[in-house]
Amino acid sequence: LYKSKYFIFFKLGYGSCMEAMFKGGKVRTYARGDTLDVKDEVNYIKSGAIAIYDRHVYKNECGRLVIIRVQDEIFPIWPVTPKVLESRRIISFKVLKTTTIITIPRDEFMAKVASGKYAMEVYDMLTRLMLITGDRIDNLLTTNTRLRLVERLLYFCRRFGINDGNRVIIDLPITHTEL
What pTM value is reported for the model? Predict the structure, then answer.
């Protein structure tokens, strides 16, 4: 279940179908803090979380947090080709907590989507990503800093929160800079 500010989107349980799409791919486990070298491939997150940073603006090691991808999601969504990697926009992928991913070549992924067998799963995931992007844009329109921070914390609670009685725990190692 993902709740955006305007919509409630129910995840239809495609996780096992997405995992089936990546069957036969290379399985790797990474520790917190590892940086991934993503070439012309698509990765399914079996468990854990990956932070995607854009270093174009700050030109430092961490850069600006673009999005966090979690269990049952794939990354990158856009084609990471040599042309993209050579562009001025430098993207880095950092492991937030112990993460297991399954990797297949981009051509194989595109063939499976084109076959129609996994189109609904990819559509579901892209719809969730669009809702997340809408929430992020909405947050940028907020001019009050305190309100923007509160909205960002609520976003993290909706997307990554775990209900624990009368409180919500955000189970991600993120800093105030990333908020």
Answer: 0.74
